[in-house]
Write a structure and sequence with these properties.
This protein is α+β, with helices and mostly antiparallel strands and 442 residues long. It folds into 3 domains: 114 residues, Trigger factor ribosome-binding domain (Alpha-Beta Plaits); 95 residues, Chitinase A, domain 3 (Roll); 185 residues, Orthogonal Bundle (Trigger factor, domain 2). The protein is built from 14 helices and 11 strands. Strands 6, 7, 8, 9 and 10 form a 5-stranded antiparallel beta sheet that branches. Strand 1 and strand 2 form a beta hairpin. 12% of the residues are buried.
């Protein structure tokens, strides 16, 4: 066997594998013997089928399988032994079937295209990001109170509408065919709010829908319709009121406290306020860390001098996702594919150079904590320990162990980010929750 590497440029190469009969003959003979032992052919006792008959009946298929196995092993070994950094897997060059005569040919030659990945330096010293420390302001607390009081409040159907009510009824285009049942939130009315206040079931309201509710996104929100539908909604509309919905805010009492945080976990207004601020702060802290991690990844990818073999990468995506995504979709989302590939290369380099490891017990414990959180279990009762552990074990083994692999890779990614963040420049910036929402569009 002879394997040669022809590097066309710094990013692309081809592997050519030349096979002589001696390279694969023993493998073919071994498989024929194995077939002879297992074949069930009429007129022959099990295990006594002549090898010559097996070769005559199945010889071509066995030859093809043997050579394919040999090629796979040989190419992979060559790549490992020569420490080639490649993108994905080698792609066989398509051959015209007529160029190979499996009945008479003894020598074969096969070619594979490979994409080469470059060596690169980690630009950790070039990365500078901001970490937002978020102060929970009173405006944010008041908004949370209002949302919770409405969520657990009592809904009534008054006879006359007021500001902040919801009107349910029939929305109809004056000059056109559009008509739908919908719920209009009066607190979203931008202009002409007086038309919607003081109305009763059975009343008809006439208004310009764009002036009242704004752009496509706003219309989609207030009508519950898709943007594709609301983009064509313009001009004068009528709304026939069928029902008025009003939510009376829940009272700030012990029943309300128990609904939010569990029975008797907080018992005073002061404790409730402190707990609300704590929960809001934790939520914003998680969001701030997510944004920090995203900014770190974005800058590392942007500042890393990684040249990607684009044509090979597109071809590899097409081959490995055949039937799942089209070449047009690959072109549309190609920048995102490149970003994911570069981040994968950076992550692997950090792992290799800094001996970052994740143990099996770390994976199990991480999955355990997530499962406990999912079932809202601060701890597993002793009488449920065995059942819980069996459930966890089955979960990690599902999909041929894919759940375990996914958990492992998530932990690796976490450790990589922890290491990277300890090396890059992070500037802390204190802002209010309201300022944070405005800045990040939350």
């Amino acid at each position: 066997m002879n394997i040669t590497l022809n590097q066309t440029d710094g990013q692309n190469a081809s592997l050519t594998v030349s096979l002589q009969e001696a390279d694969y003959a023993a493998r073919v003979d071994e498989q024929i013997k194995d077939y002879s032992k297992k074949a069930n052919i009429k007129g022959f006792r099990p295990g006594k089928v002549p090898a010559g008959l097996i070769k005559k009946m199945y010889g071509k298929g066995i030859l093809v399988d043997s050579i394919n196995q040999l090629l796979h092993e040989s190419v992979n070994n060559y790549i490992k032994e020569n420490k080639l950094r490649i993108l994905g897997e080698p792609l066989p060059e398509r051959l015209d079937d007529s160029t190979i005569n499996w009945d008479t040919q003894k020598e074969f030659e096969f070619s594979y295209a490979i994409g080469l990945l470059p060596e690169f330096e980690l630009p950790l010293s070039d990365v500078s990001v901001q970490k937002y420390n978020i102060e929970v302001d009173q405006v944010t607390v008041d908004e949370a109170y209002e949302q919770m009081q409405k969520q657990f409040g009592k809904t009534t159907n008054p006879d006359v509408s007021e500001a902040n009510d919801y009107l349910y009824g029939d929305l109809k285009q004056t000059e056109g065919e559009f008509e739908t049942k919908t719920l209009l939130p009066l607190n979203k009315v931008l202009a002409g709010a007086d038309k919607f206040v003081g109305v009763k079931p059975g009343d008809t309201i006439t208004f310009d829908i764009r002036e009242a509710f704004g752009d496509d996104a706003a219309l989609a929100h207030v009508t519950g319709l898709s943007k594709d539908v609301t983009k064509d909604l313009n001009g004068e509309f009528t709304f026939v009121v069928e029902k008025i919905n009003r939510t009376e805010n829940a009272a700030m009492d012990q029943e309300f406290f128990d609904k939010i945080f569990g029975k008797d976990n907080v018992t005073t207004q002061e404790e409730f306020d402190a707990k609300v601020r704590e929960v809001i702060g934790e939520n914003y802290e998680r969001e701030a860390i997510n944004i920090l991690d995203r900014d770190v990844i974005d800058q590392l990818v942007e500042k890393s001098s990684i040249e990607i073999p684009n044509e090979f990468f597109k071809r590899w995506l097409t081959v490995t996702n055949e039937g799942k995504i089209t070449p047009e979709q690959i072109d549309e989302f190609y920048d995102q594919y490149v970003k994911e590939l570069k981040w994968s290369m950076i992550r692997n380099k950090v792992v290799e150079e800094n001996d970052i490891q994740v143990k099996n017990e770390d994976v199990v414990e991480s999955a355990r904590q997530k499962m406990m959180a999912q079932f809202n279990m601060p701890e597993v009762p002793a009488e449920m320990e065995d059942t819980f552990n069996n459930f966890l074990d089955n979960h990690l083994k599902q999909n041929n162990g894919k759940n375990f692999v996914n958990e492992y890779e998530a932990l690796v990614a976490e450790k990589v980010l922890e290491f990277v963040k300890s090396k890059v420049t992070i500037t802390e910036n204190s802002i209010t929750a309201e300022e944070f929402r405005n800045k990040v569009g939350a």
